[in-house]
Design brief:
This protein has 455 residues and is of the alpha/beta class. The chain has nine helices and 39 strands. 19% of the residues lie in helices and 31% in strands. Strand 2 and strand 3 form a beta hairpin. It is elongated. It starts with a strand and ends with a helix. Bound molecules: uridine-diphosphate-N-acetylglucosamine and calcium ion. Calcium ion binds next to loops. The site of calcium ion has 3 residues, from loops.
Length: 455
């Protein structure tokens, strides 16, 4: 079975310069929601793109076939643009890029009915309290007759509550042939894909009651409402799987996140990308995690972490920022106002206050004093800092990279270190302190004498 996703539409009602399917829901572009479910069902996936094609292409993996619809002449025309993708001997499932929350199990049942009954096409429908905007299913008894678009409905057809979800599976050959027959003779002057069913003999319906799965996103109000609903479902699943979420109203977790049991998520927390969080962690409050792998027993408070790896028994924050390429090993403590980028911090080391570690390797049991800065950028390129095991970097130290600090060394506070430090050494890179005893006293005696002289 092949899968074709239609995503060329303008999304006029979004009032956006960005194509509709590139808009994000829980930090994941709408098109990727559809593609991810498609991937679970087929290896042969095509996408029809038009508006903002370049922007959308960037969101797709290389194995997705792209077809361009040069003009927006309707959903039927979109499928015609991918005619070469349709195989006469294969079924094709067509999905709409703006219907993002379909589940594999719903599609499985559609496919099953289609294949077991050898249908020409099988369509997914739903009954809605308010069917406004959707194509209505016209039946004679239980037999499917046709779909009528909202704008083409007669008064009595408007009352029909069973609507087309935009999802259907077809026999490739039948679809190809039917597409040749459809015309844009309708209220919108478009080639409706929904018209192909008129040319089929055996169309069957599968009805779902999962409203959230078939909801289309047409404007930003729907986008926000749907995000709220799907977010609630995701959070409910985590809670039922043993995760404590203190305040579901202010917690945002994207669909591909995994969280272990007994982890507690505090309010105002965002966990995005395909992040994985272990068991017995405490995340938040006010924390944002994106594309991170976090092991067990980790605490992250009021911090930002992206593209980072955190091993077990680590404490991060408050107010830490782990940027891409950070690796934090077991037992490490990263404290307030510490920023890391492309940095590896080994077991039981500490950087607790006001520090920047960039392009840095930190060995085990190192203490990074408050205000330590790795000066990794020389104006042209980034340079590496290497701090070996058990070193102690005094407060307010600048380490001018490229630089190596040997094992078990001590850097005096306030140093600017520009040369490598051998192991077991003390390095000082600051001016010697000079004390001038009695200096202020002499000054004031002089002042008094000057006054007497009348100066
Ligand atoms: C469509 C269905 C309607 C159904 C509803 C479900 C048709 C004619 N109507 O209506 O019966 O109830 O979806 O959500 O199919 N697209 C293109 N190229 C085009 C036009 C659209 O690729 O020229 C894509 C859009 O990007 C979108 C999808 O097709 O992902 C659906 O298009 P849209 O205009 O939103 O159709 P609806 O009016 O919602
Ligand atoms: Ca739509």
């Amino acid at each position: 079975m092949k899968i074709l996703i239609l995503a060329a539409g303008q999304g006029k009602r979004m009032k956006s310069k960005m194509p509709k399917v590139a808009h994000k829901i829980l930090d994941k572009p709408m098109i990727n929601w559809v593609i991810d479910v498609a991937k679970q069902l087929s290896k042969d996936i095509g996408v029809v793109l038009g508006n903002g094609i370049e922007q959308v292409k960037k969101l797709l993996d290389d194995d997705i076939k792209i077809f361009e619809q040069k003009e927006r002449l309707g959903t039927g025309h979109a499928v015609m643009s991918a005619e070469q993708f349709i195989d006469n001997n294969e079924d094709i499932l067509i999905l709409y890029g703006d219907v993002p929350f379909l589940s594999k199990s719903t599609l499985d049942s559609l496919i099953k009915v289609h294949q077991e009954n050898d249908n020409e096409a099988t369509i997914l429908t739903i009954e809605l309290e308010d069917p406004t905007g959707y194509g209505r299913i016209i039946k004679k008894g239980n037999e499917f007759i046709k779909i009528v678009e909202e704008k083409d409905t007669k008064a009595e057809e408007k009352e029909i509550k069973e609507v087309y979800t935009g999802i259907a599976i077809y026999k490739g050959e039948k679809l190809k042939r039917a597409l040749k027959n459809i015309t844009p003779q309708n209220a919108q002057g478009e080639y409706y894909l929904t018209d192909v069913f008129r040319y089929f003999k055996k169309v069957k319906i599968v009805k779902t009651d999962r409203e959230i799965e078939v909801a289309g996103v047409n404007d930003r109000v729907q986008l926000a409402n749907l995000e709220k609903k799907i977010r609630k479902e995701i959070l409910t699943n985590h809670m039922l799987n043993g995760v404590t979420i203190i305040d579901p109203d202010t917690t945002y977790i994207s669909p591909d996140v995994e969280i272990g049991i007994d982890t507690i998520i505090h309010p105002q927390t965002y966990i995005f990308g395909n992040s994985r969080i272990g068991q017995n962690c405490e995340i938040g409050p006010m924390t944002r995690i994106k594309k991170c792998v976090i092991e067990n027993d980790v605490k992250i408070i009021r911090s930002e972490c992206e593209l980072s790896e955190i091993k077990s028994n680590v404490s991060i924050g408050p107010f830490s920022r782990l940027r891409e390429g950070t690796i934090i090993e077991e037992g490490v403590k990263i404290g307030n106002f510490v920023e890391t980028k492309k940095t590896h911090v080994s077991k039981n080391s500490k950087a607790q206050h006001l520090t920047y570690l960039g392009d840095t390797y930190v060995g085990e049991e190192v203490n990074i004093g408050a205000g330590t800065i790795t000066c990794n950028f020389d104006g042209e390129k980034k340079n590496k800092t290497y701090i070996d095991d058990k070193s102690f970097i005094g407060s307010n130290t600048s380490l001018v990279a490229p630089i190596k600090i040997g094992k078990n060394s001590l850097i005096g506070a306030g140093s600017v270190i520009t040369k490598d430090v051998p192991e077991n050494s003390l390095a000082l890179g600051r001016a010697h302190q000079v004390n001038k005893e009695g200096w202020l006293l002499e000054k004031s005696i002089q002042k008094v004498q000057n006054i007497k002289k009348g100066e």
